[in-house]
Amino acid sequence: RIPRCAAPGERLALGPWMALVSQMESPNRLERLFKLLASPPGDQVTKSDRLERILCSTSADAEREVVSERLKQLRRLRRLRKVQRQNRTARLQARRSAFTNGLTQSLDDAKIKHVLNARLLHAQLETTVRRLQELLFECIGEYEKAFRRLQGRKEFQLRTVDNLLRTARERLAYRRFADRLRADFLGFVRHADVAPGSVDFRKLRSFIVERLEG
After folding, report:
1. What are the sequence ranges of the domains in the chain?
2. How many CA atoms lie within 13 A of 171 on its CB side?
3. Superkingdom of this entry's organism (predicted)?
């Protein structure tokens, strides 16, 4: 607080001014003040006026210094906050860039995996279709083989049945011939077994067939 300046002819109260002087920091101002106080006694009013002017100017300078120091502190604080904001902005931008890069990398990896899975599924589909076709052709081939075997078996069985029927008819014809022969000759004819491969058997067979057909 600045002390009140004395009016002309009024005695200056030095107590408040000395308290203000104790707060002064400039050596030049203190030196000027001490020189004025140490000067020989003269006109008390002039000396008081000069002292008042010095102290008033000193107080104003002190206030200006305080304001200037406060402004410097505010500037330093502003620069510090500006640097902090810049650092915070840089960190946020770095985090944003890292997030963007990670997201882009994740999307690229997902696309690559999608393409690889699509190719793998396509290859598996082709392999499966080819294998199914092979199995279908194998089934058709096995069915064709089984059908041919059945046809061969059918033909074999038909031939076997025909042979059995022919043999049965021949035996029946021979039995009828033998019975008729015995009946015609009143038991005077006897028969004997002849080997099928002999000449007599073939002749006899031809004779019997001609007689039956005639």
Report:
1. 14-90, 169-213
2. 6
3. Eukaryota
